[in-house]
Predict the 3D structure of the following.
Amino acid sequence: MTRLRLLHVAAAAVAIIAAPAAASEQAYPTRPIQVIVPFAGGSASDVVMRILLDRMAKSMGQPFVVDNRPGAGGNIGTNAATKATPDGYTLVMGSTGPMAANRTLYRDLGYDPEKDLEPISLFAHFPILVVVSSKLPVKSLDEFVAYAKTRPKQLNYGSVGIGSSQHLSGVYFEQVTGLELTHVPYRNIAQYVPDLIAGTVPLGFQWLPNVNAPLQSGDARALAVAASKRMTALPDVPTAAEAGMKNYESSGWLGLLAPHGTPKPIIARLNEEVVAAIKDPQVAAKIVEQGAEGTSTTPEGLAKFIASESVKWRNIIVKAGIPPIQ
């Protein structure tokens, strides 16, 4: 009898200890949620993240506080998130670089994207546009490839730096087409655009927000979008496949993640909120205005996507012989 009583007492104690945790998960969130964005404030990814969080804050009843921590291709902010308490009150925006490509580009990230973070959902893609200066005598992707083949290493393309999605998309383009292009890295996109317009750096593999102004003014042309379907914002621009180039799909993507060990009920709640926000027509329209396409996944879907992206970009980077950073 004494042993049986002790077992009952122990079971009751466990239930009492577990109750606050379960209750806190059910009540989540009870205070503001910090979201680390590993890029500068005002960047295209930062703007889209804030559009999503604004909608989530309204439905969850708590504000989201964005903490911009740029540096090292997104690694600094992402690394900080992996060290945060896994209680649902610190999240991080994941993207192509710090979650996939940087695993090969950097010798040591200080974290493992797949082990140290819990995926919640994808929420946006920035399809890569193949753009050229209007100074170039080409009107289609086929014409450009033929033009570039007779001018090996003579055509420059700009990006915001080695390892950026713009740079790697250019490397990938070279591998698919067999072209030899010259990469010109810039400190920021504002420095690149005048050179694109002037024709001194007449090529780019860019997100729409970076080149929207010269496209609107007629100083640049979009030859193709590197996606499986046309962009909502540019319905007249063919996909690379439609333009005659198969197997060329590239985009910057954005996802929401939490530190490893964050309770599953909290991950599930956040996933539901992301999915609901992306389905909101107003949110979808605002994301399209920023040159992106809204999307959502299950946590498991995001985990598989990150794993596949890591393999894809590792193969491209290794094949290109890009030396590790650091």
